[in-house]
Task: inverse folding
DNA sequence: CGGTGTCATGACATCGGTGTCATGATTCCA
DNA sequence: TGGAATCATGACACCGATGTCATGACACCG
């Protein structure tokens, strides 16, 4: 690999002059510049970042750690998509700034984090971002001093800068929109209790009802998702049964995520219930492969992963550059409601209660 | 940040001795070693990879480029999942070898590739992997000499090392398995014509039939997917109509991917057709979020993304280490058939033809 | 007991850039 | 026309590791 000395020799100048041509930090004569540029392209010279870094102590590298640190990870499920979208958001900001991303993943074991951090420090990464696969609290080893750390899609209790989805607002906006479309009885099949997203979204749901003057009915709420994959279908089946057999059943079912909505489609159709004619369905995440492909396409609140990544990246950059760029911590990022045809524009007139054909049959699988 | 000189001073030895303790490349006295190790942990010293690299010319870095170079990309759809799984496969091999992954993506524009490659060369990446989001031909600028390049999920006509999914075999194995389960009339709703995967899988389909002595019936084949997202539902609707209204309709529908199968579920159910009682459905990809969540869970051929990534990484490492480790080019990786309950174990007895309730109605959406 | 090997360690150069300072050639203005 | 300012360029040290070679202290052996 050619060095700056080789270029200097070919161009008949000193290495320092070549350096000046490369960096443009001091004037260089026109003819000299041309000779140097010719030599560079002739030799295919590319400066070594490592050598450059030794003097400047700026590596141009950002370390990125992804992976499920949570204790709930069952280890073999490549959830990954949220991570990826966040990473894309980060990547787009970084490449615009000329930073290069180094990426490492824990493979699900939080024990590997210190090792990964060490590698990044060896490469003198200027900052580190930790990305979680769902909104959660994490405990990370303290970052090495001098290397700023930002958390994306997670937070800790040490006050580390953190970027989170605004789950409360997302659910609020979705439910408000449903109310605006004429729905008053809104079923809600939640994610597992104990998750931050579940709690926050329920608050958003309640706030939207309150704003519209609709009384909150706990009967309409049911957990529709278990961490235990095996029992998922049965749980959702029962939850749907329960809310549909209410004396005054909902006209729309909000699902905790798009995956659950997809499963709900199957369950509802199996019983001969049509969407959205008999009942409307909404999801959460805007997991596009699901939401756009389902038939009918799914109305869903968007989890703004890419925007969260970009926010986290911006914040990290400002920390690196020592800007006092104040941010509230945590920073909440909200996304739009994606309105699609799984929800009727005008809910059935008051008083007309649909009777659903219910069976006691469980998941026949 | 502490340097090796700081450590040497604190421990009262020469920098070279510290280096020896770090690398273990020469014997060091017991007491000296202890003093050095104490100084290291006291100062929180981590060696600088950049400085190390200047002498060794080994950076420990691998460059990874992902993104849709294809001309068909509609630009705003984050397909990404295949990329991610391949990246995970690569990552697991690399971290086991102590290499660090630098990642960059083209954001859909192939014009950015040279720029990304240049960045990697600046960092003196020891090798580069290019990852595509689906099996396709690509044209990349020639890699800088001395930096090996491996293509994952794509190939070129320059003979660059390339790792591809064995689409022919995957479809063959799936269809053979369906035949073994008693199916003889096997409908096939393909991906768009012109894709490599479409051609190869059709060959696999035919080979499986031929091996079982079943005559190939072109009526059973129909394109079920368009690049044009808007028309997708209508296209699939028509394709399903066509094969189901045959005098001797299929007992199972193979879909070009799991996404199409998900859409088929919706279409079939909307018409009151039950799965798998009335007809079986199979997919391709083993896109787990879909295949495991659908009701009933989907039988599908696995596209072994992680294994492909691992293979590509292994190959790249052997190229870097100049091993003559012969590989056939391209290297084909095959995955298992995931058998789930969307396909009946025993197809209906011969002669009993199911009549489907057909409508001429299009997608009512 | 002197010569030879082994062991533990240090001095110094080197990798490939860039910061600092010096130098010679021009240009400029009083 | 002479001194100062500007310009273009080069010499040299330095960043933080490691490879090479040298050195002093012992152990070993005939």
Result:
């Amino acid at each position: 690999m050619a060095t700056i000395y080789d270029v200097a020799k070919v161009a008949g100048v000193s290495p320092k002059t070549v350096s000046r041509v490369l960096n443009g930090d001091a004037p260089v004569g026109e003819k000299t510049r041309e000779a140097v540029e010719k030599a560079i392209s002739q030799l295919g010279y590319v400066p070594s970042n490592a050598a450059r870094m030794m003097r400047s102590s700026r590596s141009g590298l950002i370390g990125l750690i992804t992976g499920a640190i949570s204790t709930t990870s069952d280890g073999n499920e490549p959830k990954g998509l949220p991570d990826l979208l966040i990473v894309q958001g980060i990547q787009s900001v970084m490449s615009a700034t000329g930073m290069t991303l180094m990426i490492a993943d824990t493979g699900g074991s939080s024990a590997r984090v210190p090792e990964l951090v060490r590698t990044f420090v060896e490469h003198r990464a200027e900052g580190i971002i930790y990305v979680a696969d769902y909104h959660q609290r994490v405990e990370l080893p303290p970052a090495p001093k001098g290397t700023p750390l930002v958390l994306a899609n997670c937070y800790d209790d040490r006050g580390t800068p953190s970027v989170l989805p605004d789950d409360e607002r997302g659910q609020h906006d979705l439910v408000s929109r449903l109310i605006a479309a004429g729905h008053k009885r809104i079923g809600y099949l939640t994610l597992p209790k104990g998750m931050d997203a579940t709690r926050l979204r329920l608050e958003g749901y309640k706030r939207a009802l309150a704003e519209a003057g609709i009384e909150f009915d706990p009967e309409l709420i049911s957990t529709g998702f278990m961490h235990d994959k095996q029992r998922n279908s049965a749980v959702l089946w029962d939850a749907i049964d329960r809310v549909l057999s209410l004396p005054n059943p909902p006209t729309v079912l909000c699902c905790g995520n798009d995956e659950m909505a997809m499963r709900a489609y199957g369950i509802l159709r199996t019983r001969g219930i049509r969407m959205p004619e008999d009942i409307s369905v909404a999801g959460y995440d805007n997991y596009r492969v699901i939401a756009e492909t389902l038939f009918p396409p799914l109305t869903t609140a968007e989890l703004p992963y890419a925007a969260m990544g970009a926010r986290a990246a911006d914040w990290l950059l400002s920390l690196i550059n020592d800007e006092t760029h104040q941010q509230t911590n945590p920073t909440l990022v909200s996304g739009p409601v994606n309105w699609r045809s799984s929800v009727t524009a005008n809910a059935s007139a008051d008083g007309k209660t649909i009777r659903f054909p219910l069976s006691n049959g469980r998941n026949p699988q």
In short: Residues 3-5, 15-16, 19-20, 22-23, 25, 47-56 of chain B lie near DNA strand D (CB under 10 Å from a C1'). Chain B touches chain A through 67 residues (CB under 8 Å). Residues 128 and 134 of chain B are 18 Å apart (CA to CA).
